[in-house]
């Protein structure tokens, strides 16, 4: 989670993307909770690989781990040199059983572990495999090949960024070789190269399917994922309103999250995320993200406001 989330600006100018909240919890909380609840393997430690985000952000991450009864650890990737390099920055944590999760997507589904294989790579069936890294498998769902953004249809099984390794020290060894040999592609060290090496060395890597893969890569994808999470977690009303929020003479439609200490007056809101401390008056808001402590008055439409912004109709 060391990236800067440029496609979600202005919101990620003040907060890393995985800490943006949807339906009352940050993305990373949804991810960690899902692993804890869906896996039959205990989670004792959570290691976060981040940029230089500051002590406040680091404390939020440590707290996220502690909420599920695990210890949290921070590692730093100070240059954006790819997924393989990110894991290399946390190489000391790669020992015995390990989950590796990319923090920009939320997933739903069982992540039961097959102890008869060396690793598991979760995938989703997609309609446009040319946009993704995909895997080919044999009749037993053992991975036979990795293909990055195939130009011809070879598989619809797209890699989603969730992995399990039974003996992660093997992955650590491959990462060491990747860095020592300076094996870059487009100036980045790729995890897929290590997975290829593990496969070629005889490791059985199994392909397993997820029920849902919810992308959070840009603003519209984030809003769509937010709506789907509300449908799953709050199916009756598909809204989330924090206990400390105040909503006066306002209609709240579907797919709305309202954070702590928000105050909304004489307005209509739908398909939007309102972050803590915002004040909204006399507005009709749809398909929007309103940042922390924003003040909005007289808005009619869609807007993406960063923290502490103000909007007033002229």
Explained architecture:
The structure is a single chain. This protein folds into 2 domains: 6-215, Alpha-Beta Complex (Spore Coat Polysaccharide Biosynthesis Protein SpsA, Chain A), CATH 3.90.550; 237-312, UDP N-Acetylglucosamine Acyltransferase, domain 1 (3 Solenoid), CATH 2.160.10. It has 6 helices and 24 strands. It has helices at 27-38, 55-67, 83-88, 168-180, 191-200, 219-233, and strands spanning 21-22, 25-26, 45-50, 71-76, 98-101, 105-108, 119-125, 133-137, 143-148, 157-165, 205-209, 212-215, 239-241, 246-248, 251-252, 256-258, 263-265, 268-274, 279-281, 284-290, 295-297, 300-301, 304-305, 310-312. Strands 13, 15, 16, 18, 20, 22 and 23 form a 7-stranded parallel sheet that branches. It has a 5-stranded parallel sheet with strand order 14-17-19-21-24, with no helix packed on it. Helix 4 crosses helix 5. The longest helix has 15 residues, at 219-233. The radius of gyration is 21 Å and the shape is elongated.
Brief overview:
This protein has 2 domains: 6-215, Spore Coat Polysaccharide Biosynthesis Protein SpsA, Chain A (Alpha-Beta Complex); 237-312, UDP N-Acetylglucosamine Acyltransferase, domain 1 (3 Solenoid). 22% of the residues lie in helices and 32% in strands.
